[in-house]
Amino acid sequence: MLKDTAVDLNLNQQVIQAVKGAFNKKRDEIKSDGFVINTLEASLWSFINSDSFEEAVLLAVNLGYDTDTTAAVTGQLAGAYYGCAAIPEKWKTELAKYEIIKEIITKLYNNTQ
Protein backbone atom coordinates (compact mmCIF):
# COMPACT_ATOMS: atom_id res chain seq x y z
CA MET A 1 0.00 0.00 0.00
CA LEU A 2 2.78 2.45 0.90
CA LYS A 3 4.60 1.46 -2.28
CA ASP A 4 1.50 2.33 -4.33
CA THR A 5 1.31 5.72 -2.64
CA ALA A 6 4.90 6.46 -3.61
CA VAL A 7 4.13 5.58 -7.22
CA ASP A 8 1.02 7.79 -7.13
CA LEU A 9 3.02 10.71 -5.72
CA ASN A 10 5.65 10.31 -8.43
CA LEU A 11 2.98 10.17 -11.14
CA ASN A 12 1.29 13.24 -9.70
CA GLN A 13 4.59 15.12 -9.86
CA GLN A 14 5.08 14.00 -13.46
CA VAL A 15 1.60 15.24 -14.37
CA ILE A 16 2.30 18.60 -12.71
CA GLN A 17 5.59 18.90 -14.59
CA ALA A 18 3.90 17.98 -17.88
CA VAL A 19 1.25 20.65 -17.38
CA LYS A 20 3.84 23.27 -16.47
CA GLY A 21 6.29 22.20 -19.16
CA ALA A 22 3.84 22.13 -22.05
CA PHE A 23 3.55 25.90 -21.97
CA ASN A 24 7.27 26.48 -22.36
CA LYS A 25 8.53 23.83 -24.77
CA LYS A 26 9.27 24.15 -28.46
CA ARG A 27 7.81 21.73 -30.98
CA ASP A 28 11.01 19.68 -31.29
CA GLU A 29 11.08 19.20 -27.50
CA ILE A 30 7.65 17.56 -27.40
CA LYS A 31 7.50 13.74 -27.36
CA SER A 32 4.42 12.01 -28.70
CA ASP A 33 5.46 8.43 -28.04
CA GLY A 34 2.40 6.99 -26.29
CA PHE A 35 3.74 7.23 -22.73
CA VAL A 36 0.87 8.72 -20.75
CA ILE A 37 2.80 11.72 -19.40
CA ASN A 38 4.27 12.52 -22.82
CA THR A 39 0.83 12.18 -24.41
CA LEU A 40 -0.61 14.62 -21.88
CA GLU A 41 2.20 17.10 -22.49
CA ALA A 42 1.94 16.76 -26.29
CA SER A 43 -1.82 17.22 -26.15
CA LEU A 44 -1.60 20.26 -23.91
CA TRP A 45 1.12 21.71 -26.14
CA SER A 46 -1.03 21.20 -29.25
CA PHE A 47 -4.06 22.77 -27.58
CA ILE A 48 -2.13 25.73 -26.16
CA ASN A 49 -0.40 26.50 -29.46
CA SER A 50 -3.57 26.57 -31.55
CA ASP A 51 -6.55 28.84 -32.07
CA SER A 52 -9.20 26.31 -33.10
CA PHE A 53 -10.31 22.72 -32.68
CA GLU A 54 -9.05 21.79 -36.13
CA GLU A 55 -5.67 23.45 -35.69
CA ALA A 56 -5.15 21.76 -32.30
CA VAL A 57 -5.86 18.27 -33.64
CA LEU A 58 -3.74 18.82 -36.76
CA LEU A 59 -0.83 20.03 -34.61
CA ALA A 60 -1.17 16.86 -32.52
CA VAL A 61 -1.21 14.59 -35.57
CA ASN A 62 1.75 16.36 -37.14
CA LEU A 63 3.90 15.70 -34.07
CA GLY A 64 4.20 12.17 -35.40
CA TYR A 65 4.77 8.86 -33.59
CA ASP A 66 1.65 7.93 -31.59
CA THR A 67 -0.60 10.29 -33.50
CA ASP A 68 -3.95 8.64 -32.83
CA THR A 69 -3.58 8.76 -29.05
CA THR A 70 -2.25 12.31 -28.98
CA ALA A 71 -4.93 13.54 -31.38
CA ALA A 72 -7.67 11.83 -29.37
CA VAL A 73 -6.60 13.49 -26.12
CA THR A 74 -6.09 16.83 -27.87
CA GLY A 75 -9.53 16.52 -29.43
CA GLN A 76 -11.06 15.99 -26.00
CA LEU A 77 -9.34 19.10 -24.63
CA ALA A 78 -10.18 21.22 -27.66
CA GLY A 79 -13.74 19.88 -27.80
CA ALA A 80 -14.33 20.76 -24.17
CA TYR A 81 -13.00 24.26 -24.78
CA TYR A 82 -14.39 25.12 -28.24
CA GLY A 83 -17.53 22.97 -28.18
CA CYS A 84 -18.98 20.50 -30.65
CA ALA A 85 -19.84 23.22 -33.15
CA ALA A 86 -16.12 23.91 -33.62
CA ILE A 87 -15.44 20.41 -34.96
CA PRO A 88 -15.26 20.67 -38.76
CA GLU A 89 -18.47 19.36 -40.29
CA LYS A 90 -16.48 17.31 -42.82
CA TRP A 91 -14.82 15.46 -39.92
CA LYS A 92 -18.13 14.74 -38.21
CA THR A 93 -19.89 13.44 -41.31
CA GLU A 94 -16.99 11.07 -42.08
CA LEU A 95 -17.42 9.30 -38.72
CA ALA A 96 -18.76 5.78 -38.92
CA LYS A 97 -22.30 5.72 -37.51
CA TYR A 98 -22.31 9.52 -37.18
CA GLU A 99 -26.11 9.76 -36.95
CA ILE A 100 -26.24 7.20 -34.14
CA ILE A 101 -23.44 9.00 -32.26
CA LYS A 102 -25.27 12.32 -32.68
CA GLU A 103 -28.52 10.81 -31.40
CA ILE A 104 -26.80 9.34 -28.30
CA ILE A 105 -25.05 12.64 -27.55
CA THR A 106 -28.35 14.52 -27.85
CA LYS A 107 -30.08 12.09 -25.48
CA LEU A 108 -27.22 12.30 -22.96
CA TYR A 109 -27.27 16.09 -23.11
CA ASN A 110 -31.05 16.28 -22.74
CA ASN A 111 -30.93 13.99 -19.69
CA THR A 112 -28.62 16.46 -17.92
CA GLN A 113 -31.08 19.35 -18.27
Task: Give short descriptive properties of this protein.
Ribosyl_crysJ1, hydrolase activity, metal-binding, 113 residues, metal ion binding, magnesium, globular, 6 helices
Task: Report on the architecture of this protein.
This protein has helices spanning 2-22, 36-48, 53-62, 67-82, 89-93, 98-111. Helix 2 (36-48) packs across helix 3. With 113 residues, the protein is an all-alpha fold. The chain folds into 2 domains: 2-82, no CATH class; 88-113. The N and C termini lie far apart (41 Å). It is globular and about 40 Å long. It has 6 helices and no strands.
Entry summary:
It contains 6 helices and no strands. It has 113 residues and is mainly alpha-helical.
How many beta-strand runs? 0
Oligomer: single chain
Terminal CA distance? 41 Å
- Strand content of the residues, in percent? under 5%
Question: How many helical elements?
Answer: 6
| Helix amount | 55-70%
Q: How does the helix and strand content classify structurally?
A: mainly alpha
Averaging pLDDT over every residue, what do you get?
A: 87
Family: Belongs to the ADP-ribosylglycohydrolase family.
Keywords: Hydrolase, Magnesium, Metal-binding
Cofactor: Mg(2+)
Pfam families: ADP_ribosyl_GH
